[in-house]
Amino acid sequence: MNLVVPNRLQAGDKVACVSLSWGGAGDDDLRWRYELGKKRLVEEFGLVVVEMEHTLKGTDYVYHHPKKRAEDLMNAFLDKSIKAIFSTIGGDDTIRMLPYIDFDVIKEHPKIFLGYSDTTVNHFMCLKSGLRSYYGPSILAEFAENVCMSPYTKDYVKKTLFSNKVVGEITASDEWVSEHLRWEEKNKNQRRKTSPNQGPMLLQGRGIARGPLIGGCMDVLEMIKGTSLWPEKEMFDGAILFFETSEETPSPDFIKYWLRNYGAMGIFDQINGIIIGKPFDEKYIDEYKETFVQVVSEEFQHPELPILFNLNFGHTAPMFVIPYGAKGTINCESVTFSIDESSVR
Questions:
Q1: Which end of the chain, N or C, is less packed with Cβ atoms under 10 Å?
Q2: Quick count: other Cβ atoms within 10 Å of Cβ 61?
Q3: Could you say which architecture CATH assigns to the domain 169-342?
Q4: Is the pLDDT confidence value at 9 over 90?
């Protein structure tokens, strides 16, 4: 998987915030949340933060204008003064941007792009353009976390986007956020409750599996299948596939159906391993484990394929950052996962 690796971020760099799916960052009752996330980028990471023209136009406008969303993304790539692009939040509507994307613009103006969830669509736009992007926190959720940003998430943002050293072994967080509070300004000084984190769980496999990282939110990947964004089959050769599920908490039956599709495409025959993010709110955690083993091992006859479950990425807090195309390693003996190269130049 030969992707262009963008330059690392440094204090003083300009980053653009974009609303590519849900436009809540510009809604009157949520603008405080966006401003808090922006403030953290400035004060804790030393960045200069700007918005694109339509970033803060609000939910209704952003929904009705996918072309304008695409213009914001294209203009952010074209602007040479902008060193990175951060997604304000996910949603369920990014796919409608596809007709308006100029892939040559992304290819010819490589820079860091960060986001997760529905932003999986944008990551596959970068992938199609040959650019490494980064599956990680959003402005409204993680950067604007109540009271303070999680030290775990903050540390991995710095390790992945600000340093050109090898990322190394991904340590599990000691705890995860298990309480959901409405995004109301009156709650911003209330810490959310946490629970102990069990850490990575090996579902099957042995030895060591290595390969370039590719994947995203399973719910969103279903919207990409069959479009021009879906990668050529060869891109899955020897890869480590990363999966996570959204706050919609899809039923185990849907996980089973989706996995059967990957099996039918022959992807389990090609990849070297799978890592899976902690399910949202740990709902269906046992059922998901059983479903992955059932489909991959029993139905598609790959009991040797390493599957590591319950990692801190995706729709969970805190989270680490996954660089597309970077070499990752699953060590079944130590039950660990590592990113074996620098994430940025």
A1: C
A2: 15
A3: 3-Layer(bba) Sandwich (3.50)
A4: yes
